[in-house]
Amino acid sequence: ELVRQGEALKRTEQMVDKMEQDLKTSQRHINSIKSVWGGLVNYFKAKPPESKPEQNGTPEYYANSRLKEAMMSSKEQESKYQESHPNLRKLDHSENNFSKGGLVSSVQRDSYPKNQHLRAYHQKIDNNLDEMSSGLSRLKNLALGLQTEIDEQDDMLDRLTKKVETLDVNIKSTDRKVRQL
Q1: What's the rounded mean pLDDT across residues 156-171?
Q2: Is 93 inside any structural domain?
Q3: In a domain, 55, yes or no
Q4: How many domains does the chain have?
């Protein structure tokens, strides 16, 4: 949603820039109509450069790299998360699920209690904590990416606000000049 809003802001900024260019062109025409002298000045004055037409309307909006990386990383981890999430996976209740040593190294095995049931629970708790850590890391990266994107869009909004205010003043001025004609 944030990327979509960024695209909309970019399109809006381009439309405001186009309006500013059109307003300058109309100002030249008003000067030509207003007096012969204005027409002569416009004739000898260099024409403003034409802006290049955008490909398919507007160029692509690119979200910041931090948000892209966080989103891609999150999508990669999503399948692993769904496989291991207790409510999203098929539970296996066998007693020897963790105690066969396949999932735990020999160094870790020594740190667990000797009792098989306690060892299985400790291993299960450790695995759950690892999953929680992974999920929190994923959320942190997404949050940092979102914050960066929000900061960039906030700057874009400030720029757009200044442009719109300037455009509003210029439109009112041009409107007054047209009414005087």
Answers
A1: 93
A2: no
A3: no
A4: 1
